[in-house]
Q: What sequence folds into this?
């Protein structure tokens, strides 16, 4: 009886020790997974693997992460940050996202978002829509803007 109890205790200790190791291995795996997702902003779209040779979109995604992601999300239902969630952006009138409190300037701009209007806006937001409240100086490099817009078109769909 006693030996049996001791054996069980050992088992419990062994299992506890084993469990203790799992979160470490798991966290490692999650970190690797996160890197492969390129930041994970597209998690809800399932297929996050970029198509082969899709370098422009990758550049665009990196630009979004470094210049926009602190204020914007792209996935459906991901919520507003300092700026509005950008899901469903293309073809939508500026300032008409479902839950964000936009400036009057943005709402009354008359702009409809597409590749061209986004390219102009992102080059110099304050000039294209005067009085809007997006505190972003602009992305001056045309190739960068093109990459970013290409990414947005895919990621906000
Ligand atoms: C510091 C925060 C901040 C950063 C950085 C930022 N934005 Fe914004 N953005 C905003 C805010 C706030 C608004 C709403 C402005 C208003 O209502 O006048 C906005 C509005 C927008 C809109 C209009 C959305 C709509 O529904 O009409 C687009 C498109 C946009 N941002 C794209 C971008 C992109 C792309 C980047 C990165 C290059 C970026 N923003 C960087 C805060 C930010």
A:
């Amino acid at each position: 009886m006693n030996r049996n109890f001791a054996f069980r205790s050992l088992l419990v200790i062994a299992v506890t020790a084993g469990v203790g190791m799992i979160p470490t291995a798991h966290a490692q795996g999650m970190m690797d997974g996160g890197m492969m997702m390129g930041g994970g902003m597209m998690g809800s779209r399932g297929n996050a693997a970029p198509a082969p040779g899709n370098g422009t979109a990758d550049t665009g995604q990196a630009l979004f992460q470094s210049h926009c992601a602190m204020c914007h999300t792209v996935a459906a239902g991901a919520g507003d940050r300092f700026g509005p969630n950008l899901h469903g952006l293309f073809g939508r009138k500026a300032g008409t996202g479902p839950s964000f409190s936009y400036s009057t300037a943005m709402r009354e701009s008359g702009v409809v978002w597409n590749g061209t209007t986004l390219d102009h806006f992102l080059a110099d937001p304050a000039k294209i829509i005067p009085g809007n409240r997006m505190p972003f100086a602009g992305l001056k490099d045309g190739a960068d803007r093109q990459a970013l817009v290409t990414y947005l078109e895919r990621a906000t769909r």
User: Anything to note?
Assistant: The chain is about 50% helix and 0% strand. The pocket of heme C is lined by residues 67-68, 70-72, 82-84, 86, 89, 94-95, 97, 102-103, 105-106, 113, 122, 132-136, 139, 148 (CB under 6 Å). Residues 71 and 82 are 5 Å apart (CA to CA). The chain has two domains: 1-36, 54-155.
